């Protein structure tokens, strides 16, 4: 048995011996102290649900957004305010649930990974962080009930280990309808879920965080942004209210995981977060970063060449990058390679 296993066994033994004495006896007090020391030592070696591991560093996350997230000021402020409000409350009324919507390559998955990095010391490797992909993890329409059961068990187990667990559901629009209905009791106000039907032990569901990612509503978001642009409203002046209603209506009516779902029906999503299509200026930033990450400071020719691979739409204005900042790395890598070859000749 390894060291951590031994500490667990010691803890169990202490609990057993404690049960043989009254709570106020000196022996019970000493055993309590031993138990605390064993737990403290264990948490030096394995991830525990304590502040050292569940860090919630929102200020640093905000700084990171300001530096590394381009063109998503609405998403940035909605996410930061929502997380701050939720994490600073010792007794939130319900779990925090946010739904991210927008075209491909605009930063939905990217932002979720950043959040994990600043909420958990172990980042997306934390055992309290769960990432599900609608297409890969729930591929079959006829298995909805099995998926629901599995999901229920995973969530219960994680919340038992840490109330501050976080669950990300990517590509919700590729998920069979109905799977997400299993989340309703976890997202509801002041729900207390029993571990066993006849048990009196409850699980607190209200401190967890759920994030849903999808492309539903993208066309509506792009059209609305275009209209606002034509009316002379700058991108940075747009507000959540300009988009929120479009997203919630479309998410509910477009095919996919949220389609006619109880989760939406019961108003259990706290924030619908729009990710706006990226413009050339943002793609340039992404390109610069991709070059610098590979140790190359790009010339304007290199950026121009990389940009020539990016498609813009919708016609006739063609001001938004159709795939955002997606798949730029590969282009950048080949441009660097081609330049290196040329200088070697
Ligand atoms: N707004 C942004 N600011 C900075 N980098 C970005 C932004 N959007 C995308 N990127 C870069 O592009 C990559 C791909 O973006 P991401 O995977 O987050 O897209 P997505 O919105 O999840 O798209 P999809 O809907 O196709 O899943 C990221 O890893 C990141 O490097
Ligand atoms: Mg994604």
TrEMBL record:
Signal peptide: 1-19
InterPro entries membership: AAA+_ATPase, ClpA/B, P-loop_NTPase, Torsin
An MF annotation (GO) of this entry: ATP binding
Name of the protein in question: Torsin-1B
Keywords for the protein's UniProt record, in alphabetical order: Signal
Family annotation (Gene3D superfamilies): P-loop containing nucleotide triphosphate hydrolases
Keyword ATP-binding attached: no
């Amino acid at each position: 048995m390894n060291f951590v296993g031994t500490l667990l066994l010691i803890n169990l033994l202490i609990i057993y011996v404690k049960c043989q004495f009254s709570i106020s006896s000196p022996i019970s007090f000493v055993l309590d102290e031993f138990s605390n020391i064993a737990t403290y030592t264990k948490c030096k070696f394995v991830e525990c649900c304590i502040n050292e591991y569940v860090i919630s560093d929102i200020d640093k996350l905000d700084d990171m957004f300001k530096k590394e997230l381009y063109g998503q000021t609405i998403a940035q402020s909605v996410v930061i305010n929502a997380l701050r409000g939720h994490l600073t409350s010792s007794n939130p009324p319900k779990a925090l649930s946010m739904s991210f919507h927008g075209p491909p390559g605009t930063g939905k998955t990217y932002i979720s990974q950043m959040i994990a990095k600043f909420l958990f010391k172990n980042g997306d490797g934390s055992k309290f962080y769960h990432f599900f992909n609608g297409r890969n993890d729930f591929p079959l329409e006829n298995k909805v009930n099995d998926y629901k059961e599995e999901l229920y068990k995973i969530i219960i187990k994680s919340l038992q280990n840490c109330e501050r667990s976080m669950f990300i559901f990517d590509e919700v629009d590729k998920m069979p309808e109905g799977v997400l209905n299993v989340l309703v009791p976890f997202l509801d106000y002041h729900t207390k879920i029993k571990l066993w039907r006849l048990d009196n032990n409850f699980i607190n569901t209200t401190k967890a965080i759920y994030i849903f990612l999808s492309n539903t509503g993208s066309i509506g978001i792009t059209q609305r942004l275009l209209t606002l642009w034509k009316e002379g409203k700058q991108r940075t002046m747009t507000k959540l209210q300009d988009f929120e209603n479009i997203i919630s209506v479309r998410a509910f009516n477009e095919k996919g995981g949220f389609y006619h779902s109880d989760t939406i029906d019961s108003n259990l999503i706290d924030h619908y977060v729009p990710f706006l299509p990226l413009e050339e200026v943002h793609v340039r930033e992404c390109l610069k970063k991709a070059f610098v990450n590979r140790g190359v400071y790009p010339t304007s020719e290199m950026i121009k060449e990389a940009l020539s691979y990016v498609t813009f739409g919708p016609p006739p204005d063609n001001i938004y990058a159709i795939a955002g900042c997606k798949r730029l790395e590969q282009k950048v890598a080949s441009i660097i390679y081609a330049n290196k070859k040329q200088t070697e000749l």
